[in-house]
Amino acid sequence: IIATMSAVVNLILVYILSGVRAENVFPKVDLPCPSPEDIAPCTCTVSSIGQSLTLVCNDVAGDEELEQVFHATFPYPYFSKLLLFGNQNIHRIKNETFQNVTFETMEIHSTTLEFIESGAFKQMSSSLKELKLYMNQLSDDFPFYSLEKLEILEVLDLGFNQITIFPVLEIPSIKEIVMSHNLVGGINPDTFSHFPKLEEVVFNNNPIKTLPTEMFNNHTKLTYINFWEIGLTELKAGTFDLSTDTLSKLGLAYNNISHVEPGTFKGVSKFSLVYMENNNLTALDEDVYGEMVADDYVQILLSNSPLKCDTELIQTARVPAFR
C-alpha cells in the first residue's frame, strides 16, 4: 500500500512539473441534479465546470408547490444558489420548506414574500454566505436573531421591504448589510458593534433622521457607507470617527443637513469620496473640512447646496477637493 501511494505521489509530481493541468489528471465529475420532473416547475443547472448547482424556482404556483419541490430526491443536496424572482404567489417560507437542501446564496426578490419562520435556514448554518431578500413584503416579523446562527454569512440584503427596526445582532462573519428603502426609524449606537468584518453599510432611503456618534469607532475594514436621503439635519462630532483608512465612499446626499460639528469626519481620509450634494449647507467651516481636504485624494461633492463660498478654505484645499 505504501509503495502504491508513493507511486501515485510521484505521478502527480511528474504531471505538475510537466505543466499538465490538474483537472486533466483527475477529471472533475459533474454534480448530479434531481430528476427534472420531480422538481418541476423549478429547474436545476450545473455550472460550466460542473462544480456547482443552481436551483431556479421562479414559476412555482405558491408556497405549497415550493415546499413540495424539496420533497423530491436530491442526490446532491448542497447547492450553490437558489434563485426565485418575480413570483407573486409566494407568501411564506416555513421551517420545513427547504428540508435538508442547503445553499451558499439565496436570492429571492420582487415577490410577495411576507413571512419567514425562524428555523427556515437552520440546516444552512455552515453553508449560507449570501442572503438576498430584496423587493419583497417583509416586515418586522423577519427572524433577525436566527441569522446569528449562520456561521459564515457575509452578505445580508433586505432592501426594498417594510422593516422598521434593525436590531443589535452578533454576526462576526458579516461584511455587507443592505437595508435601503425600508422604514427603519433609527440606529442604535451598538447596531454595528458586533460586526468586526463589516465593509459595506447601506441604509439609504429610511426615515432615520439622526445618527449616533462613535457607531463605527472600532471598525477597520469599512469601504462604503450610504446614508442618502434619511432625513438628516445635522451631523455630530464623532459620527464618522473611523478606525480605518480603507473608506472609499461616504454617502450623505439628499438630506437636509445644515449643520456639521467639528470632528464629524475625523476618520475620513485617503482616497475618500464624500457625497454631500442636495443638502442645506450654507458655509464650509475649516474646523470641519480642513483636515479632510488637506489630503490629496479626498473629494467632497457639494452641488445643489446654498453655499456661500469660503475662498480661504478653497485656497487651502488641493483642487478638486470640492465639487
UniProtKB/TrEMBL annotation:
Signal peptide: 1-22
InterPro entries: Dev_Immune_Receptor, Leu-rich_rpt, Leu-rich_rpt_typical-subtyp, LRR_5, LRR_dom_sf
Pfam families: LRR_5, LRR_8
GO cellular component: extracellular matrix; extracellular space
Keywords, sorted A to Z: Leucine-rich repeat, Repeat, Signal
Top-level division of the source organism's lineage: Eukaryota
Name of the molecule in the record: Uncharacterized protein
